[in-house]
Specification:
The protein is an alpha+beta fold and 252 residues long. It has two domains: 116 residues, Immunoglobulin-like (Sandwich), CATH 2.60.40; 89 residues, Immunoglobulin-like (Sandwich). 21% of the residues lie in helices and 39% in strands. The chain is built from three helices and 16 strands. The strands form four sheets. It has a five-stranded mixed β-sheet, with no helix packed on it. Strands 9-16-15-11-12 form a five-stranded mixed β-sheet, with no helix packed on it. The longest helix has 30 residues. It is elongated and about 110 Å long. Bound molecules: 2-acetamido-2-deoxy-beta-D-glucopyranose (3 copies). One 2-acetamido-2-deoxy-beta-D-glucopyranose (NAG) binds next to loops.
């Protein structure tokens, strides 16, 4: 039994292999086991689609590339038998983008890969911030990164910002970490702030803020002034009108 079933299985496998008219994507850098290509900003990714099993697609059968479901326009001569696409330079928007390739005549014969674009938080340099006494101080750091940052910290003059004191509040989402303080006081809020975001892949990135608290400027009380002027004008006008009545009465 064994002796006869083995060749049969072998022939079945051989039959299936030669009958598979699938397509496959080869790439630089290589696709991992999950169908993901790991890359970084500014790098290049080159993708080649060809029929799998090592034999060329029928010459009359075009290959079609899609990026996130939208057709990629290909030059003449880059469609038959073998088709290549190059992503260069890789940008933020390419993160998570799926490239798939299929036969133009049969969209079920398809293969796809997804890009995983890693990048660190875009934090660097320093910024001068002036805020008036009693106004609100708002400092914001962009922490968007792939993989996401593992932690964000804020310091004032080198020591951790005490969120329980100084009226500070902290708001964090996937995009930014925002430190705010209402009712700014020079003695409490002036100094050098720094946000530091830690990427599990790229390490620490940070930005510095030199905050100066300026004296409260005298806001000219425009509305009371206008109201006062209106009252004065109305009184004068009323006085003139009543005087005029008396004058005209007198002349009769
Ligand atoms: C498309 O390819 C699949 C898989 O090879 C096959 O089962 C199907 O019959 C093909 N469809 C057409 C319209 O050729
Ligand atoms: C992308 O790559 C990073 C670093 O290897 C990994 O932490 C992350 O989970 C990957 N994301 C996806 C969607 O594969
Ligand atoms: C931070 O340091 C600066 C310069 O030494 C100083 O003027 C400021 O008062 C300090 N701020 C706080 C809150 O201690």
């Amino acid at each position: 039994m064994k002796m006869t079933s083995r060749p049969l299985l072998f022939h079945l496998l051989l039959f299936c292999a030669t009958q598979t008219s699938g397509v496959e994507i080869q790439s630089v850098p290589a696709v991992n086991a999950d169908g993901v290509i790991e890359t970084e900003l500014e790098k290049s990714v080159s993708l080649v689609c060809r029929p799998d099993g090592g034999h060329d697609a029928p010459v009359d059968d075009d290959l079609v590339w899609l990026r996130n479901g939208a057709v990629v326009s290909l030059r003449e001569g880059n469609r038959k038998g073998r088709s290549s696409v190059c992503v260069t330079p890789v940008v933020h928007d390419d993160d998570g983008a799926t490239f798939s390739c299929h036969l133009s005549k049969n969209a079920t014969v398809t293969a796809s890969v997804t890009l995983n674009v890693t990048y660190h938080p875009q934090l660097s340099g320093s910024e001068d911030v002036a805020v008036e006494e009693e106004a609100e101080l708002v400092l914001r750091c962009d922490i968007l990164a792939n993989p996401p940052v593992s932690s964000v910290s804020w310091t004032l003059n080198g020591s951790a910002v005490d969120l329980s004191a100084g009226g500070f509040s902290l708001a964090v989402d996937g995009f930014a970490s925002q430190l705010a303080a209402a009712g700014v006081e020079k003695s409490v809020h002036e100094g050098t702030y720094r946000c530091t975001a830690t990427s599990p892949l790229y390490g620490e990135y940070g930005k510095r803020f030199s905050v100066t608290v300026t004296e409260k400027t005298f806001k000219f009380p425009l509305m009371p002034m206008v109201a006062g002027i209106v009252v004065v004008c109305a009184t004068v006008l009323f006085a003139v009108v009543s005087r005029w009545n008396r004058i005209t009465k007198c002349c009769k």
